[in-house]
Specification:
Length: 414
């Protein structure tokens, strides 16, 4: 047998999003137009400052002025880059974070794997509010841990009682993501303070203070509000972030990890993160991108464009009679599978098993060339996610297809 069993198993159940991406490409070839809202791949170009700084580096390089800048560096990243990003993180998180607490990462995915390798013993648990970005499951199991799902409230905000029930002596960390994929929720400050108090209380009781890991690639994409900080709300916290969304650089694999200034055994934790960065095969975050993002700390993509798209998409959904949770950040709309005559609220047969209904609804949409990702891929059957990081014209012209699909869905026999 050539392929590891665990990977084989994961392959058969994994990445609905990637599958949709490939199906979308097929449909595009066949029909020309597809309303593809399946993948969170930002279509906005990086801000003009990125191109300017990139060109300056290329020119310096050509003139031999940047010797050594493509070489190995400390596995944590360039010292001056860590310094610049410590300043940015301190301003965002509302407390002083020294450069020694910043470790550069190959995107948020790389950073989360580095964190999991650094803090999980075999069988340790990592608690995640559900729904959640599905790759977390793989990141945790990559490093011998177990993901424990904690239900959320009906509006997808934290259910602190459910988090409390999910904690055990094996809990190494609670992982939160705000602004949230797939729901667009931004956790309010009071819920973060309550979560911090809960984790402190758990630590006092058990002697084990779980880490609070904040996955924040969408921090800078929020609408009319500032995302409350997590790093300084609780002593034992770690922020993982990237420039995949805020500067539209997902292919460049650049981000960083910040460790709270008050974290227990903080220095040892940073040493573990640096070691994990090296031995997981990243060795270090991409050198050129480190240097570029350090000079772009005040820049981000045009968030107003995403906000306009959010409004346009909500209009389309309203027109089709699809209910959704209005997002406060990120660029996803999480929608309820519409109710059918005689069906239950999740779009399934009354009293019947509705777990497959989001898939059935997604298939119905696909017939009308609309692609979204079934909520069961995020642990939320009965829901469907649409990514609105696509051109506004695609959103506007999908209105008819949404209406027709919902009409067909409601008329179809249960
Ligand atoms: N976390 C969340 C919630 C995401 O949505 C994504 C990507 O879509 C990631 C992490 C991974 O981001 P990156 O491309 O920076 O690795």
């Amino acid at each position: 047998m050539a392929i590891a069993l665990a990977v084989k198993e994961a392959l058969s159940s994994s990445s609905m999003i990637r599958k949709m991406f490939e199906e979308g490409a097929e449909l595009k070839k066949k029909y020309g137009t597809v309303f593809d809202f399946s993948i969170g791949n930002p279509d906005l170009e990086p801000p003009p400052a990125f191109h300017r700084v990139f060109a300056e580096f290329a020119e310096d390089d050509r003139r031999g002025l940047s010797k050594g800048s493509h070489g190995y560096m400390s596995n944590a990243g360039f010292a001056d880059v860590r310094e610049a990003l410590a300043k940015k993180a301190s301003a965002e998180q509302g407390c002083e974070i020294p450069a020694s607490r910043i470790v550069m990462a190959a995107g948020a995915a790389g950073g989360l794997n580095v964190v999991c390798k650094s803090i999980l013993n075999p069988g340790d648990e990592l608690v995640v509010p559900k729904p959640y970005f599905m790759e977390y499951r793989a990141y945790v199991s990559n490093h011998g841990g177990k993901l424990v799902e904690a239900p959320t409230r009906p509006d997808f905000n934290l259910d602190l009682g459910a988090v409390e029930e999910s904690l055990s002596e094996k809990t190494a960390a609670v992982l939160v993501n705000s602004p949230h994929n797939p729901t667009g929720v931004v956790y309010p400050e009071k819920d973060i303070a309550a979560l911090a108090a809960l984790l402190r209380g758990h630590g006092e009781k058990t002697g084990r203070y779980p880490y609070l890991v904040a996955d924040e690639p969408y921090r800078e994409i929020a609408y009319g509000l500032t995302v409350p900080p997590l790093l300084c709300a609780y002593e034992n916290s770690i922020v993982v972030t990237s420039y995949s969304k805020s500067l539209s650089l997902p292919g460049e694999r650049i981000g960083y990890i910040a460790v709270g200034p008050e974290a227990r055994e903080g220095e040892e934790l940073v040493a573990a993160l640096i070691y994990a960065t090296r031995v997981l095969g990243f060795v270090n975050a991409p050198a050129l991108m480190q240097r570029i993002v350090a000079r772009l700390t005040g820049e981000r993509v045009a968030v107003g464009t995403y906000e306009k798209r959010r409004e346009a998409f909500m209009n389309v959904l309203d027109g089709a009679g699809i209910e959704y949770r209005k997002p406060e950040g990120a660029f996803y709309l999480f929608c309820k599978v519409p109710r059918r005559a005689g069906g239950n609220a999740a779009g399934g047969a009354a009293g019947g098993d509705d777990s497959g209904n989001d898939r059935a609804f997604s298939d119905c949409l696909k017939k009308h060339l609309v692609l979204g990702v079934p909520g069961s891929s995020f642990g939320a059957p009965g829901w469907i996610r649409f990514a609105y990081c696509v051109d506004e014209s695609v959103i506007a012209s999908s209105a008819r297809a949404f209406r027709d699909a919902v009409e067909e869905w409601r008329a179809a026999p249960l």
